[in-house]
Amino acid sequence: MKNLTLLTDLYQFTMINGYFKQNIHNDIVVFDMFFRKNPSKGGYTIVCGIEQLVDYINNLKFEDEDISYLRSLNLFEDDFLDFLKEFKFTGDIYSVEEGSVMFPNEPIIRVKAPLYQAQLIETTLLNIVNFQSLIATKASRVCFAAGSDPVLEFGLRRAQGPDAGLYGSRAAVIGGCVGTANVLAGKMFNIPVVGTHAHSWVQKFDSELESFRVYANMYPNKSLLLVDTYDVLNSGMPNAITVFNELRDKGFKPSGVRLDSGDMEYLSKEIRAMLDEAGFYDASIVASNDLDEYKILELKSSGAKISSWGVGTKLITSSDSPALGGVYKLCAVEENDKLVPKIKISEDPEKITNPGFKNVVRIYNKHNKAEADLIILDDEIIDESKELTIFHPVYTWKKKTYKNFTAKRLLKPLFLSGKCVHEKKDVMAIREYTQNELNTLWPQYRRITSPEEYKVDLSEKLWDLKNNMISERRKK
Amino acid sequence: MKNLTLLTDLYQFTMINGYFKQNIHNDIVVFDMFFRKNPSKGGYTIVCGIEQLVDYINNLKFEDEDISYLRSLNLFEDDFLDFLKEFKFTGDIYSVEEGSVMFPNEPIIRVKAPLYQAQLIETTLLNIVNFQSLIATKASRVCFAAGSDPVLEFGLRRAQGPDAGLYGSRAAVIGGCVGTANVLAGKMFNIPVVGTHAHSWVQKFDSELESFRVYANMYPNKSLLLVDTYDVLNSGMPNAITVFNELRDKGFKPSGVRLDSGDMEYLSKEIRAMLDEAGFYDASIVASNDLDEYKILELKSSGAKISSWGVGTKLITSSDSPALGGVYKLCAVEENDKLVPKIKISEDPEKITNPGFKNVVRIYNKHNKAEADLIILDDEIIDESKELTIFHPVYTWKKKTYKNFTAKRLLKPLFLSGKCVHEKKDVMAIREYTQNELNTLWPQYRRITSPEEYKVDLSEKLWDLKNNMISERRKK
């Protein structure tokens, strides 16, 4: 990974310089990262990118050329630039486990650090986690629509730059895709890569039949043939079946066909009938034309005979919702060795932050289904042996009581006093974790459109703190 | 730049391996990159990312670890892997100048190379040029809406990964932004960086007034103050004016204020009145809340008193149109030392490609306004001393005749026989080129919604070639 230390907004430096000059740069502060809305009007968000966040923090260092560049801006004096040369992250970062399913307003990352450090990392922390979480979430929606059919990530050529293609593939696999066409992503993240041939392959030969035959002979165990270069039903399919018969005669099992244009519903039904009639019941039909979760739902409900889905542009850009609006807000400052809660008030009630040094607890029933989340102050303990009553933070008369539950604390340490305590995990292991997390959700929270809203309440202690702080501020 | 040689779709390798085994991998082919639709339903597209494409081609090289990875896929034999070790790009690449304004279906990049090389680079060529062109185009739309007001790029935290933030800033400046908040982009591309302070700065001090005072004393010549942390009209503005008066007394000229929330129309008018009443006629009002070209148009038409615009998420992701659908299609193959045109036929007339080895000519009138583009075969010469009649490619009775025009040939060499002949240009020089290009367009082509369609016709020779090829194919 290249050195991203300067990858931040200029105002972080103008502010850090100010704190330095005021000699308050070492004040300990706490920032939460959270988001206010799920992408695509969905019911949840998968947190992703934690591994790259850890790399970023581990590699923070101002090189001489970075300092020279900052000097060239004529905004900073030498004492400050010398101070930056010694920069090293010394704080604590807690995060939910990568691949966790989270909900609006919950702290997903918590940074406790000297003010200048917490401020420097804001922008890139958000950049990394916003993007990968967005794509993992989108992928999980597409996979949910596809049911048990495999979904493949095909979007590199339309991704928003090389990193978006690479980290987007990683996130897509964590969100549920079974593989990607992106070879470098396969190498970097040890995830499955997939791919067969393009229309240009077929065009390069004198006949479609010859192109199929050459391809199938070369990859007899991976003989997925693209059948829509000329005419799917009158040319592509008859030629594919000829070649599949030849393969079968040699003892191989044909893989199937890919369809990249035309009326997917009609064509897939005709293709299925042709394959079945020739006895290729197991040959799959891969579709790959401008797909997303909405189109897949519609095709499946119309009985289209598609067995796997290659999804490109609309997944890798999350096209209906191309940004996750994660924010990073001050929630406490240390004064005389004690953390004092801070709040940001707004006329817009949704924009009022949750104050204090917090954690999140998830309540599971005995069938391991997630029932609700509770944002708590970090020193609160949820006693599983007692009843737990939670209440809606606005309509406080809406209450619910749980017994026989288990409570899981979600924020765990990545860095303690600057030391990385995070254990690297394989992407495929994170993927498995995510799939388990998704299985703890009732399906109504995963619905593609108009999902139920999952309960995220505040502990009584946090609710009291927040409302007292709001009242006090309003008095001023 | 990291080595991106493996950044491609797996099917490129399965196909290249096939060509290698058939011993046709050295056949010379020609591919065009073009797009079928402008982003955001706009009237034009700015081509951007050429410099990074050149870097990518110059750095193509399979490292040992890349070969090992490809070997691990169990798809390729040693002879092919040994062949890849020697990979070197040896072809010709022509492109329009970076920052050019282009239109649907025009070749913007033309690759003539041995088949295996042309195929390998497809995906990353598209990735790089699609993204930067998308953002440069979006930025130019936002700047057009803002008229003569400066536009600043603020999107890093919501960009689709680090590269999207970096190359997106570069493209945004080429498209017309006057600067970016992204410090690393400033360093890498030598573009202006801008930034002042965040709400957290104000919150860190005991009072807003103190926070403003400290800030203004530190940066007396760049004293842009964020006035909406608590209450714009009752706290932010009175405090800002107090500090501005102090600055004026010390002989400095206050920069202005920034507004990041609330009703921009109403607040900006009130702010302007307060600043004017205090005699700060030159102090600017920067707005920065969820802006794009549509919102800016509306604010300007309602008389909002905003003098510069900070644009984030919706610019850096091109949120209403988050991908440019650039494609890369075979248009000719060399047979017996002659280029033979190739065409891709489709039932959808818009998807039929333009065959042959082509160039694009732009026709300017004597006032240097672009009148029309003509896609020609590369060996055609447009004689400026004669009349030129062009015709619509579908409604061929629609004709237009030009005299006293100048004709500019748009595709120029980047690589010749693998040798880079491209001269590196400063980003700010590309930006100037783009602004000049945009000035050659009549404003109706730049309109934000429902722009006029710019004329892109085919030369008679190309039109005949294409229609003959279609007729011949239909006969089969």
Distance between the termini of chain A: 49 Å
Helix content of chain A: 25-40%
Taking strands numbered 1, 2, ... along the chain, how are they ordered across the largest sheet of chain A? 13-12-1-5-3-19-20
Number-wise, the strands of chain A total 21
Overall, the morphology of chain A is: globular
Largest protein interface?
A: A-B, 93 and 93 residues
Instruction: Characterize the quaternary organization of these chains.
Output: homodimer
Mind summarizing the main beta sheet of chain A? 7 strands, antiparallel
Q: pLDDT below 50 for ≥5 consecutive residues: which ranges of chain A?
A: none
Our count of helices of chain A gives: 16
Counting helices, strands and paired strands, the structural category of chain A is alpha/beta
Function (chains A, B): Catalyzes the first step in the biosynthesis of NAD from nicotinic acid, the ATP-dependent synthesis of beta-nicotinate D-ribonucleotide from nicotinate and 5-phospho-D-ribose 1-phosphate.
Enzyme class (chains A, B): ligase
Domain Nicotinate phosphoribosyltransferase C-terminal (chains A, B): 358-466
Organism (chains A, B): Alkalithermobacter paradoxus
